[in-house]
Write a structure and sequence with these properties.
96 residues, 3-stranded antiparallel β-sheet, alpha+beta, single chain, 3 strands
Length: 96
């Protein structure tokens, strides 16, 4: 029982290390041919949104650009997450 608790504490510590490492990452997602940019951290928290003025008059293109940028950013974050997990797998995460 004590061994399981110790293992659980170690897993929580490793999860915190991964979360901290991901928070330090900056990922940029782009949409609408680069007219929309979403900056997020490795935990998928949006930090900044930039929209080119030429999209402000076209609500449909703006919405599409935001969707593209968000999806692009999420895909990039997932790649970064996979890299971090494989780098930190040496910490003894089970199944890695």
């Amino acid at each position: 029982m004590f061994g399981q608790l110790k293992q659980l504490q170690e897993l929580r510590k490793q999860a915190d290390q991964i979360k901290t490492a991901l928070a330090a990452e900056t990922i940029e997602g782009r949409g609408a041919n680069g007219l929309v940019k979403i900056i997020m951290d490795g935990n998928q928290e949006v930090k900044q949104v930039e929209i080119d003025d030429q999209l402000l008059a076209d609500k449909e293109k703006l919405a599409q650009g935001l969707k593209e940028a968000a999806n692009d950013g999420i895909k990039k974050v997932q790649q970064v997450m996979a890299q971090k997990m494989s780098q930190l797998s040496g910490l003894g995460l089970p199944g890695m």
